[in-house]
């Protein structure tokens, strides 16, 4: 009897991929938590000119840990980009936050917030865009109308988001909250003012230690 090779992780995902042929996308599962933490770190440390935030610090600070804690929770959606050797090279994931625990890119409790990171050797090769497009498809299938995120204006990731159709819905200091409609006929509802007033803990973007989001205590 022939042996079947059991793939680690979630099922593969078809997408209008821009990823290099050596990379495939699959759904993120619980075992991917450590890699999601690594990619959360990549997002936090996007600027090499800043002091890098350690993984320990990211996980000790609930404001950042909440993006990955308990992964996967009901409603979470995530994708891993990995090589043929099953080495993860990037991740994109979505999580919903309630108004009383609004994420940095909070638009509404029904709008999941995006986190995205690619390991340095694989950047600039189409992996980030492929992850974004794949996750957009998963979110649409899950019935979401919109995605949101927070990004610092100086981060080149913002160009990626703009080119994929995200628009700025709010400016928070050096960062923008951006949103993407998943359906062409979607009209963003006129939302009530945010339930929480922005505070240092809720401002910022995918930033570094100089931004309130990652400032050391
Ligand atoms: C931002 C990031 C996820 C993009 O992934 P990527 O695989 O490098 O991006 P792609 O190759 O798919 O390029 C897509 C676009 O991203 C933009 N971009 C952002 N960072 C880039 C980088 N380091 N190198 C090249 N392009 C980058 C460009 O506009 C590019 O479009 P172009 O190819 O037409 O110039 C990745 O660079 C990364 O992990 N950066 C650090 C973490 C981070 O900033 N995360 C987002 C926090 S909000």
UniProtKB/TrEMBL annotation:
It comes from Streptomyces tardus. This is GNAT family N-acetyltransferase. InterPro entries: Acyl_CoA_acyltransferase, Bact_Acetyltransf, GNAT_dom. Residues 189-202 have a biased composition (Low complexity). It holds the Pfam family Acetyltransf_1. Residues 1-20, 188-217 are annotated as: Disordered. Keywords: Acyltransferase, Transferase. Residues 23-183 form the N-acetyltransferase domain. One of its GO terms (molecular function) is acyltransferase activity, transferring groups other than amino-acyl groups.
